[in-house]
Design brief:
686 residues; alpha+beta; 11% strand
């Protein structure tokens, strides 16, 4: 079963963002796309949650992945879940009964006026037969209402928990301007109930969490309790490589709360969203200028969906030229896993291009693959700067080789934060790119979503962008709403407008500067895997921990977990190279925070040297036992060979501000084997 959580307290937002869901039978769980939560235990046997196998499915299975989805609308799922927590099962029943009652009372009045209701069974929506749909819609708009049109003689009206008796009376007058019906009188007469055949009889939402928090005070404290478990950007830098965890400024976020943006239906007439459309048009123009492309589609709801839309545009272009046979997509071995997964979804066959020793695309292998597949080459998907965090000097040559073989160049915009104001993919050879507005242009990641993954195209691909009410391209839509997650587009509009041309350039140069500062400081303690001929990186760098693993059996996981004790979220682990950490500081971090992170990494290297010297045991040291919880450190029993202070306060600054992990190290294998479909009882948390 599939569904949408928008009705669970999430604003309609001109189409989004919303969290959708899919529920399946137990036997299909390993084929489920997206992210699934696994219930696991930590070293003390306490319950903990973690993202299970599907988290890295695209990286592991690539073109054989179930889907190209690598994230989830987590923030919207949290909003919907809190709506459920606050209302609980009884509250949701009351909401549903109220909605049905309003629909039923409206139905009584419509029937009294002589109109025929087409659907005898209903919950919130009534379909009504009329003589002239256009006349009814026109009358509705005059009175400030939008109603749905099915045909020249059929319209429909829906109710929700915000509907009022006054709404009912206004709607009656839309169908009959002479109506004198009283909603109050019909409410008193109406005894309608939802059919017993349709009513749920089984219990649901029985967990304590759905039956406890009924005041705003308690709800606020519960949300704070959950938030205190998280290590988020409000506490520390999040150095996730290829994720661009930059500041989401308050001024950028404020317009999202305005009803003019959040309470607009995506299907309203265009004359009701003139301001919205102006903002969208201006954002498209600004993104075109930043990328060097001729047109932008804001419809894709994520980077992965943007990849798919871009590849569909390429396929449609080849088809229009009578070259439907062009279905080969070249993808470098270092590419993000969504690239091959998206190519497969678009009906393409993936051919992998080797990576050279310096991390660049192997030009010899590229030329060979282009020659071998010249008759059927559709495209190449490359990332710039590369996934290895380097500006590849051969990028223009790569584009020329592919174009000469008849292919199109798809440039993945995941690393656009290193390009804005400095270089433009549409100007150095790209035909199409997706952008991540939730990375480069300041929309919050929200634990995986919401995101916006617009695509930019050159002039020859404009006719193959997704269809909107303003542009029927014939390609069709790739999302349910014409402009995707419309209500969060003001964030990027604000970001670009407030920074301006000079500010965007400065943001990019600072992002590159910060990455090179970290790479330079850490290079004295760890190998930096890739850099250019000048020893520089782009906006991120890769620290190679494989030699340490080989010599001392300290893994990338151990370093990542130990960073939690220092108050940092780990960098990206084992991507694009297994056994490494990819670090991206963004432009948002101060020198103090960069130094705090570098100090933590350097101190961890000193701890590794203590393992090397024998001062710490290989089988008992602060790295392999991390993270250390407050309960562990404050316990009357301490069974480790190192001190409590070494465990909890390895650097002096932690004595001022300290983040405590809510659980100790978790069992990953256990979590992959125990996917959950219901909440364990509250006792499991104690």
């Amino acid at each position: 079963m599939i569904g949408n959580t928008q009705r669970f307290g999430v604003p309609i937002g001109y189409g989004g963002p919303h969290a959708a869901y899919m529920s399946i039978k137990e036997k299909h769980k390993r084929s489920m796309p997206g992210r699934i939560i696994g219930a696991t235990v930590d070293t003390k046997g306490r319950l903990a949650y973690r993202l299970a196998l599907q988290t890295r499915e695209q990286h592991i299975r690539r073109e054989k992945a179930t889907s190209n989805i690598c994230t989830a609308q987590a923030l919207l799922a949290v909003m919907a879940s809190m709506y459920a927590v606050y209302h609980g099962p009884e509250g949701l029943k009351k909401v549903a009964e109220r909605i049905f009652r309003y629909a039923a009372v409206f139905a009584d009045g419509i029937s009294e006026m002589g109109f025929r209701i087409v659907n005898e069974t209903f919950f919130d929506t009534l379909t009504i037969e009329v003589k002239n749909s256009d006349a009814v819609v026109m009358q509705a708009e005059k009175n400030g209402y939008n109603i749905n049109v099915f045909s020249k003689t059929l319209v429909s009206v829906s109710f929700d928990e915000l509907s009022t008796p006054e709404d009912i009376e206004y709607l009656w007058k839309i169908f009959n301007t002479e109506s004198k019906l009283s909603a109050q009188l019909l409410f008193e007469k109406n005894k309608s109930q939802i059919s017993k055949n349709l009513k749920r009889s089984s219990e649901f939402m029985t967990h304590d969490v759905f039956n406890t928090y009924r005041s705003e005070t308690n709800m606020m404290r519960y949300i704070r309790y959950l938030g205190d478990k998280d290590l988020a950007l409000d506490r520390a830098m999040i150095p996730l490589g290829s994720c661009t965890m930059k500041l989401n400024a308050a001024a950028e976020l404020i317009p999202v709360t305005w009803p003019e943006f959040s309470q607009i239906h995506p299907a309203v007439p265009m004359n009701q969203v003139i301001g919205y459309q102006q903002m969208i048009s201006e954002l498209e123009e600004m993104l075109c200028e930043a990328t060097g492309y001729s047109a932008i589609s804001l419809q894709p709801n994520s980077g992965a969906q943007g990849e798919y839309a871009g590849l569909i545009a390429i396929r449609a272009f080849h088809r229009s030229n009578g070259e439907e046979n062009r279905n080969i997509c070249l993808i470098p071995a270092s590419a993000h896993g969504t690239n091959p997964a998206s190519a497969q979804m678009a009906g393409m066959k993936v051919v992998v291009v080797k990576t050279a020793d310096n991390g660049y695309i192997d030009m010899s292998d590229l030329k060979s693959k282009c020659k071998e597949n010249a008759d059927n080459l559709a495209a190449i998907m490359i990332t710039y700067p590369s996934t290895h965090g380097v500006f590849e000097k051969d990028v223009k040559e790569v584009c020329k080789v592919v174009h000469k073989a008849g292919g199109q160049v798809y440039i993945d915009g995941a690393n656009m934060n290193a390009m804005v104001g400095i270089s433009a993919p549409g100007e150095f050879g790209g035909d199409v790119s997706h952008l991540n507005l939730h990375k480069t242009f300041a929309i919050p990641h929200g634990g995986g979503g919401p995101g916006v993954g617009p695509i930019g195209v050159k002039e020859h691909l404009v006719d193959f962008l997704p269809t909107t009410p303003l542009n029927n391209t014939g390609v069709g839509s790739i999302a349910g709403a014409p402009w995707g997650s419309g209500s969060i587009l003001p964030i990027s509009w604000m970001y670009i407008t407030m920074l301006g041309k000079n500010g965007l350039y400065e943001a990019t140069t600072n992002a590159i500067l910060n990455a090179n500062y970290i790479a330079t400081r850490l290079s004295k303690h760890y190998p930096i895997l890739y850099s250019d001929e000048n020893g520089r990186v782009a906006h991120e760098c890769i620290v190679d921990l494989r030699p340490i693993k080989e010599k001392f059996d300290i893994s990338v996981d151990d370093v990542a977990k130990r960073l939690i004790d220092y108050g940092f979220h780990a960098p990206t682990m084992s991507f694009p190279v297994a056994g490494t950490l990819m670090i991206e500081p963004t432009e948002s971090e101060s020198l103090d925070e960069l130094d705090r992170f570098c100090d933590a990494m350097i101190q961890i290297r000193k701890e590794i040297r203590k393992v090397e010297s024998g001062e710490y045991s290989v089988k008992d040291n602060p790295l392999i036992n991390s993270p250390h919880t407050l309960e562990m450190v404050s316990s009357s029993t301490w069974n480790f060979s190192y001190s409590r202070e070494d465990a909890a306060y390895p650097v002096e600054t932690l004595k001022k501000v300290k983040y405590w992990s809510p659980v100790s190290r978790v069992d990953n294998v256990y979590g992959d084997k125990n996917l959950i479909c219901s909440c364990p009882s509250i006792e499991n948390y104690e």
